[in-house]
Design a protein that fits this description.
234 residues; mainly beta; Pseudouridine synthase; 13% helix; 35% strand; globular
Length: 234
């Protein structure tokens, strides 16, 4: 079993908005993305991971398997070759690529639970909402939430530090499902409201990735500690 403790020969001292390489071989790369870095370029021209990898690799192809929102930090895996990107995408769709997140959410949750909803994305506005089962275009969305600790950690607001494990990988899934239950993510200006949106950035971090290597089948596991800006104390 390989883990995130394995050093990478490509790793170098990170600078602002530069991802940290956690593992790299000829088939894939696992990086720790800082909050503020886009996964893929957009009309704003802001720094993005795909452009960074194109410059690093000296070629155009980058096999983006999944994305993190701009202000979400943490682990991502990217295919360096078409065959590995295809295999990793199939793992993502079949549930063999395990992703876990940590987030600060509003309110107090006392025990683990499974959430299931049907989500519909408006491609024009890039907004997602929960819709009744059977709605055309709606997709089943499942996750498991497990509270880590609860208390008052910021501006007198009751908060829960929670871990989320995704069974499906829908756009904005954690944010929408949490917000609809009155547990908006701290700093989420799109699906939150009121005081909770004044946190400097969305308090969501991708802390775990696990998947079989697309070539060898060997289990790869990576963990990322909560970044300093999300280590709130009561």
């Amino acid at each position: 079993m390989k883990s995130s403790s394995r050093p990478s020969t490509q790793q170098k001292k990170p600078i602002h908005l530069e991802p940290v390489i956690r593992y790299e071989d000829e088939s894939l790369i696992v990086i720790d993305k800082p909050a503020g870095l886009l996964s893929q370029g957009d009309h704003s021209g802001a720094p993005d991971l795909v452009s960074w990898l194109r410059q690093k690799w000296g070629r155009n192809y980058v096999g983006l398997v999944h994305r993190l929102d701009r202000n979400t930090s943490g682990l991502m895996v990217v295919g360096a070759r078409t065959h590995s990107a295809r295999a990793l995408t199939e793992m993502l769709q079949s549930g063999k690529l395990i992703r876990k997140y940590t987030a600060w959410i509003r309110g107090r949750i006392s025990g683990a639970s499974d959430w299931e909803d049907v989500l519909l994305k408006d491609e024009r506005t890039n907004e997602v909402r929960i819709v009744p089962p059977g709605t055309p275009g709606g997709k089943i969305s499942k996750l498991t939430i497990s509270p880590v600790k609860t208390g008052v950690f910021w501006r007198g607001i009751d908060l829960t530090l929670a871990e989320f494990e995704l069974d499906t990988g829908r756009s904005h899934q954690i944010r929408v499902q949490a917000g609809s239950r009155g547990h908006a993510l701290l700093g989420d200006t799109k699906y939150g409201k009121g005081e909770v949106t004044r946190f400097p950035r969305m308090a969501l971090h991708s802390h775990y990735l696990g998947f079989p290597h697309p070539d060898s089948g060997e289990l790869m596991e990576f963990r990322s500690e909560l970044p300093q800006d999300l280590r709130l104390e009561g």
